[in-house]
Write a structure and sequence with these properties.
Elements lengths: L1 H25 L8 H10 L1 H6 L23 H5 L3 H59 L1 H6 L1 H38 L4 H4 L1
């Protein structure tokens, strides 16, 4: 019941506001005139057109010159003394941006190369582990072979385990190097989308 009363109150307030706004718009006072009347007055009186500031719209928007939307022109720009400085500043900014992009691209190339080396080392480690598992399964499946070649198997087993340990260390080192490179790239201001 309270909700119905609240909704009715809100709706009634809204209707009262709308009706008062419509009443004000429908009955302009003597001080208010329509926009059309003002435009006609401006067109008839040529003296007032010169007093108006220049208004830009889509039809007369300059394409060659810059449009200042903040305050008045400075004295140097008004006299035309600094257009070459603006062009030099713009070209310097473009050069600076191009250098940043090139540096970012170089970082991205380095990081991609490091990621590729990690992928390669990981695949090599996976191959070594699979070979070891296959050899171990074959060796332990045949008890006679195990007894005849026990010394040879022990040597091969130690070699495979050492190779696997070395490859795991190489993968961990490569991952650490990638992390360090990513941190350096972030410190150099490379966007995180290019780093990750």
């Amino acid at each position: 019941m309270k909700r119905i009363i609240l909704i009715g109150f809100v709706f009634g307030s809204f209707a009262a506001l709308v009706s008062s706004a419509v009443a004000q718009a429908a009955a302009p006072t003597q001080d208010q005139s329509s926009l059309g009347d003002y435009a006609k007055k401006i067109r008839k009186d040529p003296g007032t057109a010169k007093a108006r500031p220049k208004v830009f719209d889509n039809d007369n928007l300059p394409t060659e010159d810059k449009l200042s939307v903040v305050g008045q022109q400075s004295a140097a720009n008004a006299a035309g003394a600094a257009p070459s400085d603006d062009k030099n500043a713009a070209s310097a900014a473009d050069d600076d941006q191009a250098k940043k992009q090139a540096a970012w691209k170089a970082w991205q190339t380095k990081l991609t190369a490091q990621k590729d080396s990690i992928d390669l080392a990981t695949r090599e480690l996976d191959v070594l582990q699979r070979e070891y598992q296959i050899r171990a399964a074959a060796m332990y499946a045949d008890a006679g072979n195990r007894m005849r070649n026990e010394a040879q198997w022990d040597k091969q087993d130690a070699d495979y385990k050492q190779k696997i340990a070395d490859k795991q260390k190489a993968v961990e080192d490569a991952k650490q190097k990638l992390g360090d490179m990513q941190e350096e790239a972030r410190k150099d201001g490379v966007p995180s989308a290019m780093v990750d």
